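To whoever picks this up:

The parser on our side crashed when reading a file containing two proteins. I've narrowed it down to the boundary between the first structure block and the second sequence. Both blocks are reproduced below exactly, byte for byte. First block:
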Amino acid sequence: MQRVVLFSALRHSALTARVHSVRLLPSAAMSTLLINQPKYAWLKELGLSEDNNGVYNGTWGGTGEVVTSYCPANNEPIARVRQVISLVFFWFLQIPAPKRGEIVRQIGDALRRKIKVLGSLVSLEMGKIYVEGVGEVQEYVDVCDYAVGLSRMIGGPVLPSERPGHALIEQWNPVGLVGIITAFNFPVAVYGWNNAIALICGNVCLWIVAEVLEQNNLPGAICSMTCGGADIGTAIAKDERVDLVSFTGSTHVGKQVALMVQERFGRQLLELGGNNAIIVFEDADLNLVVPSALFASVGTAGQRCTTTRRLMLHESVHDEVVERLAKAYKQVRFGDPWDPSTLYGPLHTKQAVQQYLAAIEQAKQQGGTLVCGGKVMDRPGNYVEPTIFTGLAHDAPIVHTETFVPILYVIKFKTEEEAFAWNNEVKQGLSSSIFTKDMGRVFRWLGPKGSDCGIVNVNIPTSGAEIGGAFGGEKHTGGGRESGSDSWKQYMRRSTCTINYSKDLPLAQGIKFE
């Protein structure tokens, strides 16, 4: 029997909590909450109110501190949520994997019915544009569809035994209790691909599907969610009952989580930072390069772990690409993230705006030339201009720093060897991409002397991964894998089983012990 607890270190999406817990604020009766304004009446379709409980264990509750969720597009309060002050685990019934797959199918259908309003809430609370908010919920739906089929395919091989009358098999069983610590930038998708895959392996942790569970005579208490601060995250990491901790967030915090989990010999699944690069060679199709670099560097206001932060351009195409990309930057439509015509929304918090300004100053001090952007927009909310720098050295400290803001560092290179080396010289190893028509170069890029990242693309940007492949990276990105391929193995434990169905007792390696 496998159990799951969900903890969102920074925020919870509409799928995992009543509202996101963002900032601790003293006043419970500040300016008018958005939830009470007619423009945001759709929030009540999700069962939200002015004050919401942040603990779910079959019913909603909460006895901890009250926090207020703010919209990053205007910094106005959305609603309030009460946190938990203790960690609670609940057990899921041990039912066959295909039956769990049927539950996941129904969860996907439930998400489909609410996809637009849920996407709107992601947009309102996180700040990403509406189409990305809906797309994030769609990613959860897609993972549910994937998991349904996977629920009938999980299994280990039957291996040939060297001993007569013996069978050698692999048996996969649930790993136990899984703690999911999610990040603010993809509150639905990260939780979703953990949950859907973990569920078919024997886990549940999703409150919005309470109706689905009840329709299938499953108690709501099999879903457990807690909402709190670093104390709850630390409790999850240190608790020996939590067999697997899945953490998505910064490398700095990930190191702390990893040390706490490893100290007790627990399992960890880490998806941490990324300092991702696109490399553009002299034979690249620039009509693909420019929109790819634009989306990968500006999309989600630079707040994706797969955001392109380094653009390496061959010296023969450097000036043309910079000119075309700067022109494209200036045409990006910014505004309210829930406006369908908006392509670029705000940063998540005021603190992120300060990080943006600090990075701008560091880039200038280290020799960078500002091509465009570099300022905070004069409007309500946490809006900053998407920014391009040229002229920085490939190993400049700021270039090697992952700043979670829309700043792109353009670097000029001469040879394939130096471009590949520069891609790999940063500490992170999440996503990477080259643009070229040279098939020999493509396979060198994919090979052992090419990219050292977990995601290695050709003629597409670094962001926008599909759910069918394993998602994750190497080095300081943490080494974990989520979503597709054989990522399900992270949520299970493997036993090698030898069965003797003969009347003899031969020993392996021909050993005689008589």
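<<boundary where parser fails>>
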Amino acid sequence: MDTVLGARLQTQQRSSQNGWETSLWSSGLGMKLEAVTPFLGKYRPFVGRCCQTCTPKSWESLFHKSIMDLGFCDVILVKEKNTRFRGWLVRRLCYFLWSLEQHIPPCWDVPQKVMESTRVQKVISGSAPAGAGEGQVPGLVKKEVQRILGHLQSLPHPFLLRLFSWVVLRFLNCLFLNVQLHQGHLKMVRKAAQAGSPLVLLCTHKSRLDGILLPFVLLSQGLGVLRVAWDPHTCSPILRALLRKLGGLFLPPEANLSLDSSEGVLARSVVHVVAPPLGLWTGALAILRSLRGWRGRRVCVRVHLAQPFSLQEYTNNARSCWGSRQTLEQLLQPIVLGHSTVIPDTEKEQEWTPVTGPLLALKEEDQLLVRRLGRHVLNASVASSAVMSTAIMASLLLFKHQKGVFLSQLLGEFSWLTEETLLRGFDVGFSGQLRCLVQHALSLLRAQVTVLRVHHGDLLVVAQPGPGLAHLARLSAELLPAFLSEAVGACAVRALLAGRVPPEGPWELQGVELLGQNELYRQVLLLLHLLPQDLLLLQPCQSSYCYCQEVLDRLIQCGLLVAEETPGSRLACDTGRQRLSAKLLWKPSGDFTDSESDDFEEAGGRYFRLSQQSRCPDFFLFLCRLLSPLLKAFAQAAAFLPRGQLPDTESGCAEQLLQFLQATAQEDGFFECADPSLAIRAVWTFRDLGVLQQMPSPAGPMLHLSPTFASQQNQKKLEQFIRQFICG
């Protein structure tokens, strides 16, 4: 079943925005528009596969080609056939009957399992006083464990859970048109759950309603009761007792003490054994906000379940992918200042994961394993997220048609960018008639978009200048992962041509220049080190040099680069004279820099030119501009250094930089980079680069301007280094 918007647009058009949409489309274009082809409704990429390098057995065993053809199901669509009964009365009471038939998994003996756990046994053996009786201490500890468990949770009440599922089902049907779930994803998760091992779900929340939606989806599909942690201070005793019956967890106060505190050791051990917290459940507030905000407009929702994998298999294989690493300051600062031209042959070490209590209790090697597992999960979640129509529309208006575009042209551009997104293995969250899709996207963006009627009968769509551009930039960021490799490559080519031809020169003049493969690798590596890892989302098992080759391959595949055969060199397509050298036989798989050459030196002799096809200039600029909000925020941060009031806290520096970005945007009109998240990323990157140094103080850690970048000369070098990747 296809998702979103297209199937029920007639219902949505009867909403409060009906007048605006009717006036928008009463232009009399007289076009006969077909559905978006060839993909929408016919082909969708299967997303969310696990890492083949770190978990090859899970990648193969939990997947089958037939899974891709299962399609979508609506988890809130309950009919007579979903129950064991038939008849007129059943059709009226099918929601209630379906809820009564939900399977509630039986509860195990939690106190006994907690008492037998290794961590609790260590606490018992370490707390026993000399001369105590053999059965006295375990008896007292068992009572304390039961007290802590009583504070944490109680046994879920099956009837209350079924009643709650019925209420949530009624509520979701009032709120959403449908809740889509891919049956292939569901089949993989069920197959993993049937293996007998505990199923741990890691969620990336897209909405405040996830706290209600996700437990309902898992319970309704027979995957068990999701335990959600609550803050005990925000609930009354009566509400706390009810939520415990529904599977809620309440951490005891002593479990939040620091690790070096002697109090609460047993409480922290019990919490560690039972269920680490999944995050605060703010569903009640989300319900009120949604009922107030939507005002009768029902929307569609899709829940993505990525492919499960064995945690044991991951821990066994992930350690073998570790190599030498250096900080961003060691990798990039000498090159920025002009002290060196050689990029060290190591990976970047950049971890922005907060070091919390559970992480501090682990060894350094295990901490690194957990962080890299988080990056794998984040990579899978981003790859599984569908791109919405507003993201495609915002990207077109912001990066391809900044001065406006006629509606007749926008229709074709929307279809083109949708197909390009699907071709790159990313799914979209919409389907239907092209005209209706563009109509709906523009209606959602009507606060940031102006539609003007021209004398030819066409409509001119223009993004409104001002702070609304920052909202369009945030929406367009959803599209960046699909085109990230090409965007990095285009910015690297831009930096390589910056010192050779004028930036605003004709495309034909830029196409004359030969681009060496080694030079391209170098520029791509520099940009990879500069960009934050939470943006790149590189898998920890993938080396930067492999990613450089992927970037180059993407530029060739999309037609921006063409191979240039130099005199005397072996043709790129000539594989007859290749031989297996000793280097190739012994080179690790992660170190291959070119799939068609024996070593890096032979591949480095290849050259490329920019393609002269008519579509290439616009597509090249579009790719470069996808990264322009972040890169311009970094460049503005370099210009901010002499004006900043340092030292200051990390949040204070980010607030100062945000105010500077907003003030600068009022002058140059570039509001895309005036965003709090970009300001925070700039501060963190400059801290890792050694531009800002963190020093302890009585008020907490403070950021100082490092002596190296106190001079205006080095500040200008930093700004010039960043601006070489920015395309005007």
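After patching the parser it read the second block fine. The longest strand covers residues 176-182. The radius of gyration is 29 Å.
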